[in-house]
Amino acid sequence: MYLFLFILLPAALFIYFNTIGEKKLLTLSFTGIITGIVICGIRFIFFTSHRIIPDSFFSNYFFYLINIAILPNIVYGVFFLISKDTIELKLKALFPLMAGFYTIYLPYYFLTLSGSVYSNYDLFLRPVLYLAFLYGLSMAIERLYKAFEEKNNMKKIIYIVMLVLYMIIPAAIDSSYIINKAFPLFAIIGIVYILFPVILFVLGKLGKSKEN
User: Fold this and answer.
1) Rounded to the nearest 10 degrees, what angle do helices 3-17 and 94-113 cross at?
2) What Rg, from alpha-carbon coordinates, does the chain have?
3) Within a 13 Å sphere around the CA of 164, how many CA atoms are in the beta-carbon half?
4) Which single residue of 13, 23, 73, 125 has CA 20 to 30 Å from 31?
5) Residue 82: in which H helix or E strand, if any?
6) Counting beta carbons within 10 angstroms of the beta carbon of residue 183, is it exposed (0 to 12), middle (13 to 18) or buried (19 or more)?
């Protein structure tokens, strides 16, 4: 029942490192996993996961945005500040580091938050949504850096918008689902959200193939 929730991100990391990922970043994934275990252990010991769900889209939205999208990425922020690697390598590190972290954090957070009743959304759609979240953020931040190097203002705008949207949309979908308001609309947004980085990746590969 929980298998997909637990194996999706490790499987994504396996595929990532066997296709486009740099092997020297592999240790960062294990660092992310260990950090996730430590933080979830601290949460388990010192904080309660029980939450009374308010019938308010925005209350739930900001809860998910802060606790699942923003606060966990402090881990990446700390790495970015203390690492002595090049900027390019630091940017490439976002996905492997945070995918490792979310491998532990997402199952712990969602299963403890949901109590004893887990829907297909919790077990299947949410993991895919947050995989797209991580990969979309990683793609946007790397391409934004290149746009600044190229001094391409149009690309800067596009990837800043992409970065913001990939940060804020999952919480909106979670909130819509939890209070059952306009969820079909947000589900469609979620499908586009998931497919968009895949389409960008494929188009990028096709472009490189034509150049070669």
Assistant:
1) 180
2) 18
3) 5
4) 125
5) helix 74-82
6) middle
* CA distance linking residue 147 with residue 37, whole number of Å: 36
Task: For residues 138 and 133, give the distance between their C-alpha atoms in angstroms, rounded to a whole number.
Answer: 9
3-state helix, strand, coil in the chain (%, to 5): 85, 0, 15
As a residue count, the chain comes to 212
Crossing angle of helices 153-179 and 57-64, in 10° steps, is 120
Handedness of CA 165, 175, 52, 126 (dihedral sign): negative
Q: What is the pLDDT of residues 168-191, one digit of tens each?
A: 999 999 999 999 889 999 999 999
Residue carrying structure tokens 């486009």: 20
From CA 197, how far away is CA 192, in angstroms rounded? 9
Position 174: which residue type? Answer: D
Dihedral sign from CA coordinates of 104, 106, 109, 111: negative
Cα 10–Cα 129–Cα 68 angle in degrees, nearest 5 = 85
Please write the tens of the pLDDT for every residue from 36-89. 999 999 988 887 767 788 999 999 999 999 999 999 999 999 999 999 999 999
Query: Looking at residue 122, what DSSP letter applies?
Result: I
Dihedral sign, Cα of residue 110, residue 133, residue 80, residue 161: negative
CA dihedral (102, 180, 162, 197) in degrees, to 10, reads: 60
CA distance 44 to 37: 10
